[in-house]
Write a structure and sequence with these properties.
By secondary structure, the chain is an all-alpha fold. Helices cover about 80% and strands about 0% of the residues.
């Protein structure tokens, strides 16, 4: 699932950057629909737990709604907004810091110590992501003439 989420994030960030215009709401909505579809496929293909009954689902609705409105939607909107303005490599480099929070919180929730093995694993993942992102940033920077990345045309920059 980690590999799949990485691939879909990369594809989404690339498309968010390539499609110009202010479509943050549509792109945010599309990411939720696509994410729900992928989650549904995983639930059908490999169910881990039995399906909850109606009372259990209704008990979760207020929490899920609040989490979506106040956490997931603003974060997704901010990511889409940033992905439109930065190259995908830079976006992925900035979001690689999520790996640190995820590995530490997973250890805390599982009640496991965050030892050297997990620290080395986190460092390897961050290093691989940083190397890939830095290569992408370098390629993107070579394609754009200086000054145009800030929205300044060559004529205005030379005046």
């Amino acid at each position: 699932m980690g590999l799949g989420s990485g691939i879909t994030f990369a594809v989404g960030a690339t498309f968010a950057h390539k499609v110009k215009g202010s479509y943050e709401v549509e792109k945010t909505w599309l990411s939720f629909v696509f994410g729900a579809g992928i989650a549904a496929i995983f639930i059908v293909v490999n169910p881990v737990y039995p399906a909850p009954d109606a009372d259990q689902l209704l008990a979760v609705v207020p929490f899920a709604t609040a989490a979506a409105l106040f956490i997931l939607i603003p974060i997704t909107w901010a990511m889409v907004w940033g992905a439109q303005r930065l190259d995908p490599g830079r976006v992925s480099l900035l979001l690689m810091f999520e790996v640190i929070a995820a590995s530490v919180s997973a250890s805390l929730w599982a009640g496991e110590p965050y030892g050297g093995e997990k620290l080395v694993g986190t460092a390897i993942i961050l290093s691989a992501g940083a190397l890939d992102a830095l290569g992408s940033i370098a390629r993107f920077s070579r394609r754009r003439p200086r000054g145009e990345s800030a929205g300044i045309s060559r004529k205005v920059a030379s005046d």
